[in-house]
Design brief:
The strands form two sheets. The chain has an eight-stranded parallel sheet, covered by helices on one side. Strands 1-2 form a two-stranded antiparallel sheet. 43% of the residues are buried. The protein is 35% helix and 16% strand. The chain is α/β, with parallel strands linked by helices. InterPro entries: CutC-like, CutC-like_dom_sf.
């Protein structure tokens, strides 16, 4: 069943898996992933992948691919020349066939770098995109949510609720899930960052319906590939916790 198929209780929850290469993508697809986040260099927490990786994955699987737009570790967009590189990179990804994206930049004060975000988003031409875990490192996450509200294509926020991970962020995740109808909170919350299977029942019961895994899909760590079996276990757990 693909992400756009419906079960008896409605549309199933999204399972997004980080893919570094074609092998990861094929295993994630076989295990039941709905979408892939395509990145490189997890030692830097995920950077823009080479175009050859993107095109290889696009040829290998029929899943939606959210491609990272990030050229250096951390959440700063950098100086003007660095922002220009980000914009060029976004354009190159579009030309290579990317249709969905992941990005997020903060300034030195921990506020959203709205100028940099808007310049990159303008290059995406309305494509859907995720504001990633920069949100968890912001000085004021509510202010960030409100500043981002209304940007073209923004449909998802990837968050653990805390820079320390889901364990610490659970109260924030549950509180934000309850605010879905409010301006600035209408994007889908994609839960990721220290996410474990035992978190899923509580999150599902609160109505959260999108989950992001990276290391949790790799029994041998980031030096090993995505495990189809691990992804299937996540798929089964998420589906079994479908709220009434």
């Amino acid at each position: 069943m693909n992400a756009d198929e419906w079960g008896p209780m409605g549309k199933r929850a999204v399972l997004e898996v980080i893919a570094l290469d074609v092998e990861d993508a094929v295993a994630a697809r076989a295990g039941g992933a709905d979408r892939l986040e395509v990145v490189a260099d997890m030692a830097a927490d995920g950077l823009t992948p080479p175009l050859t990786v993107l095109t290889g994955i696009r040829a290998a699987v029929d899943l939606p691919l959210r491609v990272m737009v990030r050229l250096s570790e951390g959440f700063a967009a950098g100086a003007a020349k660095d922002v220009d590189r980000l914009v060029r990179t976004a354009g190159e990804l579009r030309e290579a066939g990317a249709e969905e994206f992941v990005l997020g930049f903060l300034d030195a004060q921990g506020s959203v770098d709205l100028a940099a975000v808007e310049l990159v988003v303008a290059e995406l031409d309305g494509c859907p995109w995720t504001f990633h875990r920069a949100l968890d490192h912001a000085a004021d996450r509510e202010a960030v949510r409100k500043q981002l509200d209304g940007l073209p294509g923004l449909d998802t926020c990837l968050t653990a609720g805390s820079a320390a991970g889901v364990d610490a962020g659970l109260p924030t995740l549950l509180a934000e899930a309850a605010r879905r109808a409010e301006p600035g909170y209408e994007q889908q919350l994609l839960v990721g960052g220290g996410l474990r299977l035992d978190h899923v029942p509580l999150l599902r019961s609160a109505g959260l319906d999108a989950f992001h895994i990276g290391g949790a899909a790799r029994p041998h760590g980031w030096t090993g590939p995505v495990s189809e079996r691990s992804v299937r276990e996540w798929r089964r757990t998420i589906d079994d916790e479908q709220p009434e």
